[in-house]
Amino acid sequence: MAAPGLLPGIGRFFEVATALGRVSRPYSKPHAFTEVRQLPKSQLTKLVFPLQDLERYLLPDSKPDLHLKTFDPRLEDIARADWFFTATERNRIEYHSSAVRLDHAPALARPEVCFIGRSNVGKSSLIKALFSLAPEVEVRVSKKPGHTKKMNFFKVGKYFTLVDMPGYGYRAPEDFVDMVETYLKERKNLMRTFLLVDSVVGIQKADNIAIEMCEELALPYVMVLTKIDKSSKGHLLKQVLQIQKFVDTKTQGCFPQLFPVSAVTYSGIHLLRCFIANITGNLKTDGV
Ligand code: GDP
Known about the structure:
Elements: H1 11-18, H2 33-36, H3 41-48, H4 50-55, H5 75-84, E1 93-99, E2 112-117, H6 123-130, E3 151-156, E4 160-164, H7 173-186, E5 190-198, H8 205-216, E6 221-226, H9 233-250, E7 259-260, H10 269-279
Parallel strand pairs: 2-4, 2-5, 5-6, 6-7
Antiparallel strand pairs: 1-3, 3-4
This protein binds guanosine-5'-diphosphate.
């Protein structure tokens, strides 16, 4: 029987998918894309296009639209995107500053992208993975309860700024409204918001607060599904289909294509870098 809330006809696929077992970890080091390109095709797909890899487990007659081609860069573009994230003498990638209020935020004129998500969703790990080609960058985490949560600004060469927003959770709504909503509403150079959802548990109540905020502010945002290495393919596919259906039917501002990632296997990290390079105007791929 198909899981409740899913498209009809998906049931048969689950029988296959649940039998597939856990996702293998073909790759666990932050290699540069030049090395990734040497991998056999199946491993490359798994690592670079995790959504495409999942799609092949769907039955052809019950394939829902995963919007795989909305953002469909060439491997050359993905290779070029890595360059923006690679620290060199001429491309300095560094923590810039932190702020507790928007009026304390640095006046950086470059395009900006921000990452928001529930505490523990895997935000720091994802940002570390994105910056794995700049190992000197320190992604700060303040996890202690009661500790002031801040927005952390990272300069990526002269190309863009990446902002790590405080995680939200049980007690966070007030902080979140004061700090995050004001930032999202008023930051002039904010190009896109990346909203992280834990792929193991799917969209939770606290995630809905952030989704509603993005929708009410009519912001363009993107859903990134974290920790995809943790589930079996069957479970992951079930979550992806549910979230995709939600995005298709309940959202206006969310980019139609989901971005599944793992900070452990680095699946999806290269594609996400490429998308960010596009969003910030540094690359040009169709569909963005
Ligand atoms: P944050 O609170 O959103 O910054 O979350 P963290 O990045 O600190 O991650 C929370 C927990 O999830 C930590 O124990 C991480 O090791 C774990 N985690 C984060 N990302 C991944 C992932 O991609 N795969 C797995 N297996 N664990 C992850």
